Protein: Tn3 transposase DDE domain-containing protein
Amino acid sequence: MDNLKAERFILPPPDTLERAGLAGRARARKRAASEIVAELGGSTLELLDALLINDPALGMTPLAWLRDMPGSPSTKNMNALLKRLRFIRDLGIEPAISLATTGFRFGQFVREGSVAPPFLLADYSHNRRRATLAAAVVNLEVKLADAAILMFERLIGGLFTRAKRGQERRYQDTAPSVGKLMRLFGATIAALDMAEETGGDPLVLVDEMVGWHRLMAARPHVDALADLAQEDTLVLATERYATLRRFSRNFLDTFTFKASGSGTNLLSALDLLKQANGSWGTQLPANPPMPFSNRHWSKLIMEGGKVSRPRYETAVLATLRDKLRAGDVWVEGTRAYQRFDAYLLPRKAAQSAISELPINVNSGEYLAHKSAELDRRLRHFAHQLRTGRLPGVTLVREKLKVVPLQAATPPEAEALDRKLDALLPRVRITELLLEVAERTGFLSAFRDVRSGKEHDKPAAVLAAILADGTNLGVERMANASQGVTYAQLAWTQNWYISPDNYEAALAQIVREHHRLPFARNWGEGVSASSDGQFFRTGRIRSGAAEINAKYGHEPGIKIYSHLSDHFASFSSRIMSATANEAPYVLDGLMLGARELPLKELYTDTGGASDHVFGLCHLLGFRFVPRMRDLADRRLGTIVSGANYKGIECLFGQAIKVGTIEAEWDDLVRMAASIREGTVAPSIILRKLSAYRRQNKLDLALRELGRIERTLFTLDWLEQPDLRRACQAGLNKGEARHALADAVYTNRQGRFTDRTLENQQYRASGLNLLIAAIAYWNALYLGRAADHLRYSGIEIDETLLAHVSPLGWSHIGLTGDYLWEDASFSGNRGYRALHDPNGRLRLVA
Structure:
């Protein structure tokens, strides 16, 4: 239209423009399909068509079988993934086929091919069907490869975890024996000590006081305990070698690994294992490649002068696991296991992005400034601590002690919160969602994957979201809903619900939430908090599920979520229950809050690491973790700690400025790549911390983080308001967790989905519901406050900062979902406030 106006054409009617656009898009799709199909051979086209034909051996079509990827780590599921991967490769479709047309068009074929059921694809025209299937196959190959390597990680990790736990159990079982032996040892020492004092015969005194026969009888127990203490996890893991062999040969034959530098020695070891697998009874050479960072393993592998095949293979695969996670070894054609450098911007392209980083990118000037700042701050802190000018902070026995702050919420604020909450309208969740949809327009984000059109039945989209967010599921939601059928819900979930659509809808709600006048009572909108919340799973270690002893003996997952200071829940992500939270701290800021002016992030101690401190600083965020383990953390200094009198005991090793300077170019390139959205922060941090042999970039980021952590620690100790703000931010996160528990109640609040992808759908639906409830509550809290003012009740405006929009007692979350009745007609478009006493004068 802009082009027509510029050329001075009279615009045709809107329906004519729409028909022209639809026709143009159809022509573009046909052309793109033809370009893709032209790259395929005749035999490949026949194999693609066969994907939609029901196979009696599979009990389904091959396409449905390929999509049904098992998620829980087991040797059976590993071989099932590898079988699917080989099936796809036998089709002969090269990934380079994606270059046959534009990236957007190929991506559209991928999106359709990922969700279209076989019966619908069968009705497509020849070219469109084959192009869609080819794109789906290329995408499935990547997903299967990533899933298989991830399962390999978990299976190998499980071998060593179970070995370590078995060792710990044996230690526990021998605890009574250890106690007896220690008492026997103590009595022997006492006898020897008496012999020394009296000049008596030591052997005679030992025999009299302890009993020589008792010492001799204890000898086998002592030897057994010594052997147990010296057991290496490699030896214990090798006890499950038979389990490893059920998938190791298949796994090594399926993938081609690549490496550079030190990783080439590992590739030689892998080639040796493949050769040994190929010939029955082949013995390993006397001097095989030893690519192990643990030198002790090289000794353990030699058993009786010969190489132990079980130990060698177990050690090689464990090393492969570590290097795959670190990016030292990679597999082309995967997303999660690429070469580390592939995740970063090319060096030339990174220059403009580096110049936009919120720091001085000149390494010499930057480090000189930081060195001066750190020296000045440490001297000031040492002086304040010596003179007792830090309230609540003391140095006791060379450890810092910080007096906990008292709760800052006054009783008047709690009374006001209850008063405002009592005025909120009583509403069903169906009515709330429809109202939020009308006010924010978030339903416009849920569009058909193929046509891009909005759904003609909004209630179906809302019911599908509610099915995810409450964990009710599509079938049970259809049974509990009025005006929405199972067929409609299944179709809607398949074609309208996607991760991108969830993200876009959430962004619209959060954007409107931050525009609410009442939200300004909670802050400036520049800070946020993040934390992980544990949920149990109904399947043993399905998807990302793991057993974390902190939460009991049942497997589960975590949802790591981010909440702005305005109570807008703007990000959530599934993570393993045993994974470190630190890598996910920045994901929400960089991937889920690009439109929010965030500058500061509060986390619990679990999210704190030197790497996160360093990366937050490079990206322009202030990282504020609650430091519960402050007494165990050492401060960093560039010059000698002796220069700061009175606090010398607080310093650890000197910060290695030379390491930062040597890797400075790669540090800023890495930060620029994250800032540009080339790679998620969690991927970079996991790669850097995955391998025991820390690389130079990892060390440089850690040393940079030590500078920032030291400066933050000084802020934490000198500023009680900072500690109070951090605690308040984390309390908001706890309130979000409570609301999540209230919403996600069906199936006893357990994640029962097998795959990580489906679990992420549940988490996204839950987060959208939380964001919608917070927005709606904030909207009506503002009206309730206005009502109190109109009624002549004086409100202390400072108390409104303590009011929370995350309550739910006034919301009907469960029951029958009456979508046809879910509408409202209030004065000026608002619902009437609730009248707790029957004397409400302002009802709308």
About this structure: Residues 126-173 form the longest helix (48 residues). The radius of gyration is 32 Å.
